[in-house]
Structures are given as C-alpha cells and as structure tokens.
Design goal:
Layout lengths: L2 H21 L9 H6 L3 H29 L4 H24 L2 H24 L1
Keywords: Membrane, Transmembrane, Transmembrane helix
Protein name: Putative MAPEG superfamily protein
Subcellular location: Membrane
Length: 125
C-alpha cells in the first residue's frame, strides 16, 4: 500500500496533536471540553484554531488521495504529494501556535496546493 494511503490516517490524527497542545496543563473539565477551549487564550487558543483548521483540511486531502489512487496516479507522485502535504500541515500548526501568520499562510497554501495537484493528476491519469 502506498504511503499516501497511510498518510490519510496520519492526517486524521494531526488535529489531535494540536488539541493536546491546547489542553495540556490547562484546567480541564471533561464534561465540558469545548467550554475550556472556548475560553483559551494565547498559544492554547491558537493551538485550538490549528486543530479546527486541521479538521477542515483533512476531508479535501483524504478525498484527493483516494481519487488519485483510484485513478492510478503513479505511487511516487502520490507519496511525494503526501509527504509535502503532511510537512506543510505540521508547519502550519507550529506556525499557528507560535503566531507566525505569514509563514502559517504559506504552509496552508502549500498544503492546499498538494490537494489541487492530486486532483489535477487524477484528472490527467
């Protein structure tokens, strides 16, 4: 199985990393977890925003990988796009937490560029 298919699972867990950053060390009530994050500030708030954005990016990415795989895009192209997407999304979250807005936007564009690339590659396959 190509790495790109495994990357869907990895991408599904990335939002949870940012959730852990947002919740770590904060007073936490598991009966009202969203309330805790709604009142977060500073890096915890930004980590929560990174988590939300990671969920938003997941569905188009997963769809792009699956469509490209079904359309028989060569595995090397799939895997390269998967690695770039994952690295861009990790950078996106780190930039969010560190409040690096321009770098965050650039990493978001790179990640979404991978999604577009996969759909275009599928269309040309």
């Amino acid at each position: 199985m190509p790495f790109a298919l495994w990357s869907i699972l990895i991408a599904a867990f990335l939002p949870l990393v940012w959730t852990m950053v947002a919740k770590a060390g904060a007073p936490y009530d598991n009966s009202r977890p969203r309330e805790v994050l709604a009142h977060a500030s500073g890096y915890r708030q930004r980590a929560n925003w990174a988590q939300q954005n990671a969920w938003e990016a997941f569905a188009p990415y997963a769809a792009a990988v699956i469509v490209a795989f079904v359309m028989k895009v060569p595995p090397t192209k799939l895997d390269t796009a998967a690695w770039v997407f994952l690295l861009a999304r990790v950078a996106h979250g780190l930039c969010y937490v560190r409040n690096l807005a321009t770098a965050r936007s650039l990493s978001w564009m790179i990640g979404m560029g991978c999604v577009v690339y996969l759909f275009v590659a599928a269309g040309m396959a």
